[in-house]
Amino acid sequence: MSAKIISGTEIAKQIREELKQEVQELKDKHGLTPGLVTILVGENPASISYVTAKQRTAHDLGFHSVQDNQPEDISEDDLLNLIKKYNEDTSIHGILVQLPLPKHVNESKVLYAISPEKDVDGFHPVNVGKMVIGEQCFLPCTPHGILEMLIRSGTETSGAEVVVVGRSNIVGKPIANLMLQKREGGNATVTICHTRTRDMAFHTRRADILIVAAGRPKVITADMVKEGVVVIDVGVNRIGKTPEGKAILCGDVDFDAIKEKAAAITPVPGGVGPMTITMLMKNTVQAAKQSAGLV
What we know:
The protein is α/β, with parallel strands linked by helices and 295 residues long. It is 39% helix and 17% strand.
């Protein structure tokens, strides 16, 4: 048996087409253009790449998109004042501050300064709290993307044994919370594994759905999963370069071996990655609609 490939690239493309139509309708019917600002501090190459991709996607969808580049030595107060300016700008519905920030800037203070109504990353404590109790909010983008992949691939989650490897605030904790809720893509029985889990394989072998966000290459091997499992691999690890200098990427699971046992699996690259930016765009459209009282 070889697993069905759950392509984040294809699912993200579907969602972006839906968003493109929705944005055009908002413009035509309500004179409303979703606005997104991405704030980049310094010149970290990876951050520049991420921000460029976000801005390109926003532009392709017809957003009002603003790229605000700031020097590495910007003071914390100046950065907070910049966020305050965008909080008050009615043409901007989503604010994203690209992480990491320089060491002299308190990341938590900056993220908490973003208005919860414009926190399209879903990191503000107000949105995190609403997520936990199941209220309407901006869901964090990667977990939101995972839910969409499971739903759109036809994976049954209700009553399923779900094992999440990793307990980060960005992926592990929120996806575990979302999947145990009474919602589409939820109603699962969820176990979280982490670096202090004594016998990880005992838990992963029970999984009907295995979500791995450990940050270590190929940490999950074929002997750690059962036949017919659905695997969502969140990891992106650089394990070398091709002779041409291109990065060689792999996930947190041993894809080649596990795809022979799994019912479905996400690839790396082309799996969860494309979904994260897409869900950021979905949140921005939601923020625009909320600002106009349309939802």
